[in-house]
Amino acid sequence: MEPIYLSIKQKETGTRIRHMLMEKGYTVRDVQEVMGFENPQAVYKWLSGKSLPSLENLLILSKLLNKTMEEILVIDGGFHFIVLCMY
Questions:
Q1: I want to staple 53 with a disulfide (CB 3.0 to 4.6 A). Which of 57, 71, 72, 87 is the partner?
Q2: Which residues does UniProt assign to the signal peptide (predicted)?
């Protein structure tokens, strides 16, 4: 097997999260409350691409948005997920 090289594009992921939140009608305040944050700075950092949600927060975000984590993250790399179904 060959090595797989992937990286998460922070800025593009932030833009994607912003669009997904807008589509669902959620505000930064809504996300702050769902996450249990005292202030919204972490959410604003995600949206601006300055940081990424932790794995736990990404999981909560995926449930909130009804999306998979892979649908939320913008991945850079040559690896493509292939789903094989056997019946």
A1: 57
A2: none
Residues 40-80: tens digit of each pLDDT: 999 999 999 999 999 999 999 999 999 999 999 999 875 55
**Which option is the CATH number for 6-77: 3.40.50.2300, 3.20.20.70, 3.40.720.10, 1.10.260.40?**
1.10.260.40
Give Cβ neighbours of residue 74 (< 8 Å, ≥ 6 apart).
8, 9, 12, 13, 16
pLDDT for res 2 = 82
For residue 70, give both structure tokens.
């892979």
Q: How far apart are CA 45 and CA 48, in angstroms?
A: 5
Cα–Cα dist 20/65, whole Å? 7
Q: Measure the CA–CA gap between 9 and 84, rounded to whole angstroms.
A: 27
